[in-house]
Predict the structure.
Amino acid sequence: MASTATRPGRRVLKARPRNETVVAYLFLSPYLLVTAVFTVGIVAFALYISFTSYNLFEAPSWVGLDNYQRALGDTRGFLRSLVNVFLYVIIVVPLQTIIALMLATILNKPIRAQQFFRTVFYSPSVTSSVVIASIFLWLYLKTGVVNYVFDRTFSLFGAQWTPIEWLNDPRGLFQLIANAFGETIPSEQWYFQGPSVTWMAIMALNIFTTAPTFMIMYLAALQNVPPPLYEASLIDGANRWQQFWNITLPMLRPVTLLIVVLGTIGSFQIFDQVQFLTAGGPLNTTLTPVYLVYGEALGVLGGGSVIRMGLASAMAFVLATIIFIFTFIQRRYIESGTEQY
């Protein structure tokens, strides 16, 4: 009798979690509906469009893999943009990560006007990218501040500085090095010429604006490192470099993974500075995949361009696949061992 008497109570106990789950999903349903329509639905539609010829004004016509073949076969367009953005990633991501860590380490020390310096260093990250690009456009003029500083610095050593058109110089880094030794890299082998002077100028601009954001993330992580670890290492005779290498860096590995992944994704998606400063020039040395996707989708690349949403969608999915591969590799080699921290 006792067992049968408790059955209704057990049913109530089992039904309560089920009711709570239903209520929870009801509260989540507006967000889930928006996500399903405007994220999952749009991505699925874009994937379908990538296999069609579509200009927004006519019904899509199925073309299969033609858009992907056209994108990957365009050595002067999409493939050139992939090479450009790859060089951008392998230069910008390590530099901005190292600079962010250095700034965070300095600002984590008890120094005078600490809050002031934190605010000053972080201010580029909260400024509009268009405003920052406009400032650098002025700095990079042939008669601008950058050339002036180099000119004054060279004059101190009795040398002469030739002003550079920083935003209109297609010469590559490796090409300049080869020219210094009397060699040359033919234009047909553009992929060996390295990042152009203009591309490196844009890299400097983006490092200046993104490193402070990652600095804040490192600074928060540094303040969570337990002080007893440093005290114990001092007792064992460790110097500052040994403390940094054996305590600080390992404790920062989870944050470093996040910063590297975010920096890589952001670098692959660079667009606004290119659109505002160079429009992919000179000679396509600053062309990027996102700028090409934008141009093909809206038909704004060159005179008489047509809208090719299918090609733009195919480029976008190729880029998304590359970002996924890079992120997977980074997680594989950086995330390993972070669980203990």
